[in-house]
């Protein structure tokens, strides 16, 4: 083996630790959403990803370098961790994909550059503009005219997530209709000419933008009505960096994590109120291990709402659980509990530890795969036969929004607040 840096050797060790206990039983394949949606291409499934990891180690040990093309296998992973829930050996194929992407981005172990140009663009723009599409300022639009408590140490942190869905939809459509090569070339061009991202605002779907802004306003009102005081960073609010981490850009993520942590300290934040599962999971379970001074309390806005404030109804609804809430850390099921206090909740067969991802994380890189997964999840949700499907994540909502039955939890809740109902009567 040719001389490798300490960082690369550590990456290999991490990969070996993760794949070595695999006994090749295939249980993980039975729950992995990307395998059937890819037409059963084995390297686009959980066991296949572990096998690719094992082959990479064999190549390094034999030839000193990875010749195998591994990018599609790892970048197409949803990071949902459904595979980990069923693996008798405790192997996490999602983690294997994360390490695999880190190996690709480090560039030292592969014979050719396998970095995904769309991933590169996202990381480049985030590092430069603190937003994956360079639209941070536009993302504050929803808050126009609303009052915040600038002295409060509670920060309402949207992470720009709801706001970006208006762009994801259009960009996802471009990827699906123009093809992978076109999107990659467009991403390469934008990476080189990042200043052009100022025109990104013309790619938004205005109807989706209005809807997403209305959900953020619902969240604002739900918190205000509950007597919570909070501030907001407006145009300065940065994206949390989830993509940088999930796409395997470890060094960049370390830098970004420090920037984010410093910003919160500078603004004297003590409690971060998150509004989406990806930001909550990142701040709760991942980011603290990248910095030394993460001393903030991280909560989900639903934690601050009282069940008694909502009217019990005769509704029969279906709830789609976000993987990043139920399959990460300790698991988090406050949205389900809150909904159960208001309505009869019918859960689809794939729920709890068996939850099936909406396909959203693949939207920008593998549009067709993502829409196959969301079609399947939508079918599973419809099978419960209820009139409403409730989501608690902007990405799930955007991907599953295939008819009028799908609704964000914030709009479901706000319409069932006791005060709200009294006003209507
Ligand atoms: S379930 Fe675990 S042990 Fe079985 S094939 Fe998948 S990774 Fe290997
Ligand atoms: S994390 Fe999800 S998409 Fe990735 S291998 Fe596991 S089950 Fe499949």
TrEMBL record:
Span of domain 4Fe-4S ferredoxin-type: 12-34, 66-99
Gene Ontology MF terms in the entry: iron-sulfur cluster binding; oxidoreductase activity
A cellular component annotation (GO) from this entry: plasma membrane
Family matches, as Pfam families: CCG, Fer4_8
InterPro entries: 4Fe4S_Fe-S-bd (IPR017896), 4Fe4S_Fe_S_CS (IPR017900), Cys_rich_dom (IPR004017), HdrC_iron-sulfur_subunit (IPR051460), Helical_ferredxn (IPR009051)
Taxonomy, superkingdom: Archaea
Protein family membership: Belongs to the HdrC family.
Protein name: Fe-S oxidoreductase
Species the sequence originates in: Cuniculiplasma divulgatum
């Amino acid at each position: 083996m040719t001389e490798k840096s300490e960082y690369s050797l550590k990456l290999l060790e991490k990969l070996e630790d993760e794949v070595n206990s695999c006994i090749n039983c295939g249980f993980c394949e039975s729950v992995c959403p990307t395998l059937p949606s890819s037409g059963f291409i084995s390297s686009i499934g959980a066991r296949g990803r572990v096998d690719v990891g094992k082959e990479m180690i064999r190549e390094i040990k034999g030839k000193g370098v990875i010749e195998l093309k591994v990018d599609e296998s790892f970048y197409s992973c949803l990071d949902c961790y459904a595979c980990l829930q069923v693996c008798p050996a405790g192997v996490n194929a999602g983690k294997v994909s994360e390490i695999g992407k880190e190996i690709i981005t480090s560039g030292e172990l592969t014979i050719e550059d396998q970095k995904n140009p769309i991933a590169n663009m996202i990381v480049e723009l985030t590092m430069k503009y603190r937003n994956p599409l360079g639209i941070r300022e536009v993302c504050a639009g929803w808050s126009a005219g609303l009052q915040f408590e600038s002295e409060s140490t509670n920060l309402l942190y949207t992470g720009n997530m709801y706001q970006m869905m208006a762009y994801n939809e259009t960009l996802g459509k471009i990827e699906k209709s123009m093809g992978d090569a076109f999107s990659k070339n467009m991403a390469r061009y934008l990476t080189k000419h990042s200043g052009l991202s100022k025109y990104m605002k013309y790619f938004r779907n205005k109807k989706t933008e209005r809807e997403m802004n209305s959900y953020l306003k619902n969240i604002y009102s739900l918190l205000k009505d509950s007597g919570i005081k909070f501030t907001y960073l407006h145009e300065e609010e940065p994206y949390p960096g989830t993509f940088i981490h999930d796409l395997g850009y470890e060094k960049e993520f370390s830098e970004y994590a420090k920037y984010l942590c410093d910003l919160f300290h500078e603004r004297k934040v003590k409690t971060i109120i998150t509004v989406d599962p990806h930001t909550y999971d990142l701040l709760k379970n991942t980011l603290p291990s990248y910095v030394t001074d993460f001393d903030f309390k991280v909560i989900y806005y639903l934690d601050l709402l009282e069940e008694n404030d909502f009217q019990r109804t005769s509704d029969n609804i279906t709830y789609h659980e976000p993987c990043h809430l139920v399959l990460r850390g300790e698991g988090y099921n406050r949205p389900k509990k809150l909904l159960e206090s208001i309505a009869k909740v019918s859960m689809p067969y794939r729920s709890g530890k068996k939850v099936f991802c909406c396909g959203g994380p693949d939207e920008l890189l593998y549009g067709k795969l993502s829409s196959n997964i969301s079609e399947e999840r939508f079918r599973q949700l419809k099978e419960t036969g209820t009139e409403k499907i409730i989501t608690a994540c902007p990405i799930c909502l955007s991907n599953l929004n295939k008819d009028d039955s799908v609704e964000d939890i914030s709009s479901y809740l706000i319409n069932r607040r006791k005060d709200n109902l009294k006003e209507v009567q």
